[in-house]
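Q: My collaborator sent me two sequences in one message, no labels, and asked for predicted structures for both. Can we handle them in order? The first one she listed is below.
A: Yes, handling them in the order given. First sequence, followed by its C-alpha cells:
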Amino acid sequence: MSGLQRVALIVTIIGAINWGLIGFFSFDLVAAIFGGQAAAFSRVIYAVVGLAGLYSLSILFTPNEELEESPEPERQ
C-alpha cells in the first residue's frame, strides 16, 4: 500500500469518526476546532476528507495481490 493510500485512509477514518460524533452526539468536531461549519478552513477540511474518501475508492477496487506485501524469505 502506497503512502498516499495510507494518508487517504487515515483522513477518511478521521472523517468517519467526525460523522459518528455528529450522528451519535450532534457534535461536529471539525466545526468546533476550526470555527464553525461555514468557516473557510472547516470547509477546506471537509473538502479534503471528501477527496480522501473518493481516492480511497481506488483501494476498494485494487486486487489483493497488489495490496499485500510478500514476506521476506527466511535466511538461515
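Q: And the one she listed second?
A: Here it is, processed independently of the first:
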Amino acid sequence: MFQLDLKSRKTIYEQVVDNLKELIIAEILKPEDKLPSVRELSKTLTVNPNTIQKAYRELESQGYVYTVTGLGTFVAVPKKTTISPAQLEEIRNRIKNDLRELYFLGLNFGEIKEMVLQLLEERGDNK
C-alpha cells in the first residue's frame, strides 16, 4: 500500500494516517472498501499494532473510515457536511506552508499557479 519514512519528523502513526487519507482522497481506496486488519497492516509495515489502531481511530474520528465490530474497518462514504472553521484553518495553514516551501525552492508565482491549476484539473472537478 505505502511505505513509511523512518527518518521523517512525523511520527509513524501520523504517516499512516496521512498515507491512508491520501489513498482515500485519491480514490485508490473507494467508499466501502475494507481496510487491512490492524494485525495485517502492522505486520506489513512492521510496526506495533497499537500504532495502527491509533491511526484507524484518528481516521474514524475525522470521518474517513468506520468500524463494524467483528467485520473490520471500511472507507466511509464522503458526507456532504459543512467543514468546521478549525478544520478549514488547519488546511489553510498547511497550504500556506507548502506555498512557502515552493517559493523557497525557487518556483515563481506563475509556476505555482500552473501547478495548482493542473492539480485541480487532474481532480476533474471543473464545476
